[in-house]
Specification:
mainly alpha, DNA polymerase, domain 1, 3-stranded antiparallel beta sheet, two-stranded antiparallel sheet, globular
């Protein structure tokens, strides 16, 4: 299957970022269904079922990657596959947010202690940034140093929907970023790239050598989640957490949840999360609400 995937990717006339995303999506497909699995409707449906809780934009581009592969190898099941896609993409009602908060906090606590080398300092700063700002992984990877007002601990970004927004950084995330960037001073010191234009998060793999190169969202995903196919152990597993328990987007879920629990102010949480609709923020209000307090009063505090 890997040979077919490589040949398919070689035929694509798309941007490097899109091809990299397709490559990662198909790598996850192989990981989910197995290297020797046939390209049929069953494996296609297995993959869609596995990623059903992912972000809509992720599901869409990963489906496109897989459908492109199936088309490339001239599968006879394309009509049935299109029906499966319609089944999994039909409009559904809003679901309450559910994630493993204990697992996420364990990963955050572990990453907060990383300090051995540049990748460790980067991953520490990255996880603390996601958890304390609510940035999406693509937004964090797109940050330039000049985007951040270091004195005010905030940044102005162009986020989802091409909307401009203010992001606030916690003291611990700013401190982690400062320590990471101080350690990065030895990387390409004579670069012509102005400091303001340099990426906040860099690649530190062998291919990047000692040059300033931005890390992609898929690269950071691999650093945090790992890649069993390549034998790469991510920070989640290093923290002693099953990698299936924590999704990268769960750090954003954690951020929104913590802002709501701190103030019980749904409008404030909506603003900090940059949700265009308060209905989206309402998906978090089941955490620690009046029903929880009432239940505790009824069943746990009885004499």
């Amino acid at each position: 299957m890997q040979e077919q995937i490589n040949r398919f990717l070689d035929t694509l006339d798309l941007s490097k970022n899109t091809i990299d995303t397709y490559r990662y999506a198909l790598r996850r497909f192989v990981e989910i269904v197995g290297e020797g699995a046939p390209l049929n409707t069953e494996t296609f449906e297995t993959f869609l079922a596995e990623i059903k809780d992912y972000a809509p934009s992720t599901k869409q581009i990963w489906r496109s990657a897989l459908l492109g592969l199936y088309t490339f190898v001239r599968s006879n099941d394309l009509a049935e596959i299109q029906g499966i896609i319609r089944h999994y993409t039909r409009r559904q009602g809003k679901r309450i947010v559910n994630f493993d908060r204990e697992a996420v906090e364990k990963v955050i606590e572990y990453c907060g202690r990383l300090s051995d080398d540049l990748p460790a300092l980067r991953d520490r700063a990255f996880v603390l940034t996601l958890a304390d700002t609510g940035l999406r992984i693509s937004e964090a990877c797109a940050l330039k140093r000049g985007d951040i007002d270091w004195l005010e601990a905030r940044a102005v970004i162009i986020g989802k929907g091409d909307k401009q927004a203010v992001i606030r950084f916690s003291e611990r995330s700013i401190q982690a970023l400062r320590e990471y960037h101080t350690a990065c001073a030895s990387i390409e010191p004579n670069t012509r790239i102005p400091l303001r234009s340099q990426p906040v998060f860099l690649r530190h793999d062998i291919r990047a050598r000692k040059r300033i190169r931005p890390i992609s969202a898929s690269g950071m995903w691999t650093a945090i989640k790992g890649d069993p196919l390549q034998g790469i152990k991510g920070r989640i597993e290093e923290a002693g957490v099953d990698r299936s328990l924590v999704r990268i987007h769960d750090f954003r879920h954690y951020f929104v949840t913590m802002t709501y629990l701190a103030r019980r102010d749904i409008k404030l949480s909506q603003e900090l999360a940059r949700h265009s609709s308060i209905d989206t923020t309402n998906r978090y209000t089941h955490f620690g609400g009046e029903a929880d307090a009432a239940y505790d009063e009824i069943f746990n505090k009885r004499k």
